[in-house]
Each structure stands twice: as C-alpha cells, then as structure tokens.
Amino acid sequence: MEGDKKIKPYLPKIKNAQKKGGIIISNISIWELAMLESRGRISLNTDIKKWVNTCLNLQGIKLQEITPEIAIDSCNLPDNFHGDPADRIISSSARILNAKLLTFDKEILKYAKKGHLKVVSTD
Prior knowledge:
Helix content is 52%, strand content 7%. It contains seven helices and two strands.
C-alpha cells in the first residue's frame, strides 16, 4: 500500500514514542479514519470499530479529546490556515499540547514550515 511506504521511515520514531507513552491521537482523527473507510478510500483488514479499539488499547497511546482551548485555537490559527475543520483541530491539538504532528498532508506541512506547528521529520 502507498501509505505503508510513506510511514516506513517514521516507524522507529513511532515505536520509540509509543514506548515512552507519547503517542497522542486526536479524536477527530478517528472520525477522519471512519470517513475514509466508509467512502472506500482506505481498506482495513478488520471491522473499523475493532481496529480503532485495538489501536487505542495499545500501551503508549492516548486519545486526545477536543478541549475548549483546542476548539478556540482551531478557529484562531495564525497565518491563514486552510478551512478544513478536522485539519484545524488536529493542528491545534498539536500546538496546544506542544507536540510534534506526524502528517503527510501537504497543506499542514506547508503551514508548519511557517513556524506555527512542529512536525515529525525522518531526521
């Protein structure tokens, strides 16, 4: 799969973050995953509910709710962030938590280059 090729260089960092209990998944990402699966844009090897629950029960993974601070920040992102609400919430979650975001989204990566958001690199 194309996604497998993209993620492979990041696997050591992901595994290290998981060992340290440092993987945070925004709950809006679960919604995005379900949308992609329901539209046939991704295919999972099991039922999506089971897949998500299995992932969220792994050691080192935390689900991040949309807090009032994240919601407000997502509406006030500096430098004309694009309009996708899910991307805004995901980016604001990383900003508020002072976390690095792992993304392949070109718009978010472009935004990060402006210094408003930290992203994971393969370095």
